[in-house]
Amino acid sequence: MADMKKTALDTLLNVLKTSGADAWEVADEEEKGWEFYFIRHSLDQHRAKDVRTFNVKVYKKFDDCLGSASASIPSDATEEEMRRAVEGLCSDASYVRNPFYTLNKPCQAETKGQAENIDLEAISGDFIRTLASIPETVTEDLNSYEIYVNKITRHFLNSEGIDVTTVHPSSMVEAVINARKDGHEIELYRMLKAGTCDREQLTRELKETLTYGRDRLITVPTPALDKPDVVFATDPSVELYRFFASKLYASMVYRGMSDWKIGDMVAPENLTMCSVRSLPNSSRNVAYDEEGAPIRDLTLIDHGKAVSYMGGRQFSQYLGMESSFIPSNIEVIGGTESEADLRTGDFLEVVEFSDFQVDSITGDIAGEIRLAYLHQGGKVTPVCGGSVSGSFPELLKTMRFSKESRQYNTMLIPSVTRLQGVTVTGVDNA
User: Rounded to an integer, what distance in angstroms lies between the CA atom of residue 267 and that of residue 403?
Assistant: First the structure.
């Protein structure tokens, strides 16, 4: 089997080297996985997966321009099929005219801590046992769930001589929670990603969701509120912090979609954001990025000041960056207040949105409220309906965030974030 795999890759490499392409990249990706489908807690079906694909990108040079085209080629394609596919890519690349840039060259990455022995059976067992132990009630329970456990091996090569391999686990749980009261029933959906099974974190997420399901059935319409403080403490918080990261991508800066400049104050003065090579149980703990560049720890924002851009080779080189990379994990630190401090006084804590977005260009935020807790005059009332909106760049002036952190797969961010003066549209009861 190993010889067959090597032969297929060797055939593709020979095709590329004789194709007339001026440069090329190949990612030989193999995904081995186990999948389980449960109804209630009864196994309905399961299956094993073993998929291998060649992701190919070719480049053609014209004067001071470089064209590129990419496609996936099945690993069991014949030599003739590979050759036709690559010829098509070379033709497509000839119609593209980007300012010239060069590909990454070989550079050794720090590989300490990279996953080695990934036991799909053990990881699957951890997930199954954890989900079976979630405390349910007669009115709130797990309707169904699916478990996906994968070992991903990525062998990347390019025409500059890079030849590196990364191996990492990647898992996902999709769960549907049911809640019932007085003849009414609702469903809440969760998609949770991680490297392997973190029993404590998974249990916490699903216990919270069961509570939200219960409270969703006793909500009252969201009243009209005069630009209250809004607290974010669930996964929509990620979108707030992802906005900072998006503004520092070289592609955003080069295209004029971000006006952030190195040295500018772009965030609260106590906020520090870093790209980190590894986070506990992240599904993206790899030593090299998608283009073969070493991933390293890098400070992006230091006490509110932008200090580094990041991103892929093309746009980074346009900005004069020669040692760039595409980050895999982000960490945000610097909060000075506790979770309890940020939950004092009157505020609206939104825990469930039907959708929540932060525009990566303008910073406009918008989300429809599915479940929130209105803290007013010492009383807590579950509410539903209406929406939140505002300009995040303006709201940053009042942004407060906790010293405690919470991890959402590849993002480690403050567990509680509070914004003052958010526009909240209530439900019209007229």
Answer: 16
User: Would you kindly state where each structural domain of the chain is located, as residue ranges?
Assistant: 2-209, 219-430
* Side-chain half-sphere exposure of 212, counting CA atoms within 13 A: 26
**CA 430, CA 421: separation in Å to the nearest integer?**
25
Number of other CB atoms surrounding residue 261 within 10 Å:
10
pLDDT in tens, 166-215: 999 999 999 999 999 999 999 999 999 999 999 999 999 999 999 999 99
- Computed on alpha carbons and rounded to an integer, the radius of gyration of the chain in Å comes to 24
Q: What is the CATH number of domain 2-209?
A: 3.30.2290.10
Global model pTM greater than 0.90 = yes
Three-class SS of residue 192? strand
SS3 398: helix
Among 249, 186, 255, which residue's Cα sits nearest to residue 216?
186
Q: How far apart are CA 97 and CA 162, in angstroms?
A: 25
Do residues 426 and 406 make contact, with C-beta atoms less than 8 angstroms apart? no
Residues 6+ apart with CB under 8 A from 109: 164, 287, 288, 294, 295, 296
Residue 414's Cα: distance from chain center in Å?
Answer: 16
